[in-house]
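Collaborator request, handled under Task 6.
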Amino acid sequence: MNAEVYELTIAGPARNALSSALMQKLLEQLREAGGRPLLLAGAGGAFSAGLDLKEVATLDPPRMERFLLLLDELIDALFGYPGPTVACVNGHAIAGGCVLVLCCDQRIAADDPAIRIGLNEVPLGLEFPPKILALARQRVPRRTFERVVLEGGLHAPSGALELGLVDEVAADAARVARERLERLAASPRPVYVATKRALRDGVLDLGDEQRRYFRERIVPAWCAPATKERVRAALERRR
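Structure tokens returned to the collaborator:
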């Protein structure tokens, strides 16, 4: 791999679940990457199992708002990263983990039928925050978008490929992901970055009504007792 490439590994407890601390760390690493070609993968045989539900289950409305806004900040930073990005989906990429996959320019999944990829927020009883829904609408093909979002299924890599959640399934996903990144990085960098910016400019911008809906509807719904109970039940199933 070219020494210019920045390899960002999602690494944390519970299959790299996205806690506040981990999201802050990833933001710092994205700033450190500084526009270098970026390869995103997960540590320990998983990509990311999603948001840290243990943390989510403890949050009151002010802390929940900060948590979800931090996730929004991470999405903005990765989706708008000023350089080529490739996700090597080397393990489960569920909910928030799948969101990070969708942020990347290209997405290569390992050919392992045990891996699960998908956006399962609706079955879990979590309404999509506006920015995540805007990202999914942009990155998931129109023909499968409603199925992916409303059905909330978790798919093997072959199924994720059919639905457009990943671009390719490979036996040696790490090698193929590196090859794809090197190919993207071979283009003149200023032109690549300018074109990417033009394609994505404004896609994730939220209007006043959406921001108000987030504060007045999404945050309280994520903090509701029934939601917390479903989150705790999901944690019990994972044990």
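The cover message to the collaborator said: "The chain has one domain: 6-190. The chain has 13 helices and seven strands. Please let us know whether this matches your experimental observations."
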